[in-house]
Amino acid sequence: MVQLIESDILTKEVLDWQGLHLFHFMSSSCSQKTRVCLNLKNIEWESHHLNLSAGDNYTDYYLGINPRGLVPTLIHDGEVHIESNDILLLLDERFPDVKLVPAGLEDQIAELLHHEDDLHLDLRTLTFRFTQPRGKEPRSKETLQNYRDRGSGTVGGEPDAHKDVELKFWETAARTGITDDAVRVSAGRFKAALEELEDRLQINPYLLGDEISVLDVTWVIYINRLVRCGYPLEQLHSAVNKWFWPLREQPKFARELQVPPDVQKAVEENHVNLRQAGATLVDVAGL
Ligand SMILES: N[C@@H](CCC(=O)N[C@@H](CS)C(=O)NCC(=O)O)C(=O)O
Q1: Which of 27, 28, 128, 217 to mutate to test the pocket of ligand 1 (most atoms within 8 A of CB)?
Q2: Euclidean distance between CA atoms 126 and 194, whole angstroms
Q3: Which terminus of the chain has a smaller tally of CB atoms within 10 A, N or C?
């Protein structure tokens, strides 16, 4: 579990906050899965919305709360928790009325969530190339300098290497764009992961058996994004497709996955242009 210690946190006021507070962004996948779990568990929480496109996550204030500058961050009675999957596991322990981590499956779930988290930058790679156009420099030099300079830079009192991984992603994106090679690698990883899900869903209605778990939530969110990128879900993974849509349409999921009409329009126009140019996700990745 990644719970920050006092020296990691420079925005000290949050240490006095009571109740449950979530820093999140409407269209961030990690925020979406956290909000869906909160909905499924009927937990009340206070919203602190950040706009990642506007660099709200790189202010002194927010980097003083989460030194990684990522969303989500959960604050529970003054404790600051980062890393969405750890947050989901923590919520399941502290609010057990609706269980999303079935008893006996804790270790297996932790491992499977770890694998899902490993694919996070692959999801970002595909998102930034195949949803709405993001421009040549998705995060400006000035924004990235703020990111470098601000916050404690530590997690658990130790210098945090995650920040360098993030900086490298944005700097590479600005230098080379999202390349065809990067797309092929990321799409290939997802295809392999979805083949494993397909096997699971041949024998069970949900990924880990007869009941919904956090693993279903996290994968619905990822797959929703892949579909938005033009991933051919129905053609490649029919059992996943059959499991995905009814869950995605449930109100506790659907309300967290809404897209503003102007963004939806931009995505659709982009897909038309990509089709005309023979440069869709299917074309580039050879799916
Ligand atoms: N492993 C982290 C990843 C968090 C993450 O990368 N969040 C993204 C949004 S989904 C973010 O904050 N991105 C920063 C940005 O786009 O500037 C977690 O699961 O919480």
Answers
A1: 28
A2: 15
A3: N
Q: Quote the ligand 1 centre to 152 CA distance (angstroms).
A: 18
| Domain with 243 in it | 108-136+177-285
Residues 238 and 117 in one domain: yes
H helix runs in 141-260, sequence order: 141-149, 162-176, 180-203, 214-228, 233-236, 238-249, 251-254
Are residues 216 and 188 both part of a single domain? Answer: yes
- Note whether residue 158 is domain-resident: no
CA-closest residue to ligand 1 atom 13: 70
pLDDT tens digit sequence for 154-206:
999 999 999 999 999 999 999 999 999 999 999 999 999 999 999 999 999 99
**pLDDT tens, residue by residue, 178-190:** 999 999 999 999 9
Distance (angstroms) between ligand 1 centre and the Cα of 251 equals 24
Backbone conformation region of residue 212, classed left if phi is above 0, alpha if psi is from -120 to 50, else beta: beta
* Residue nearest to ligand 1 atom 15, measured at CA: 52
Q: Is the CB–ligand 1 distance for residue 116 below 6 Å?
A: no
User: Is 28 touching ligand 1 by the criterion CB < 6 Å?
Assistant: yes
Max CA separation in the chain (angstroms) = 55
CATH number of the domain enclosing 85 = 3.40.30.10
The pTM score is 0.97
Give CA–CA dist 64/34, Å, rounded: 21
Number of domains in the chain: 2
Q: Is 27 in the pocket of ligand 1 (CB under 6 A)?
A: no
Residue 186 phi, psi dihedral angles, 5° rounding: -65, -45
Residue type at 179?
T
| Distance (Å, whole) CA 208 – CA 177 | 38
Q: Indicate whether 142 belongs to any domain.
A: no
What are 113's strand-pairing partners?
none
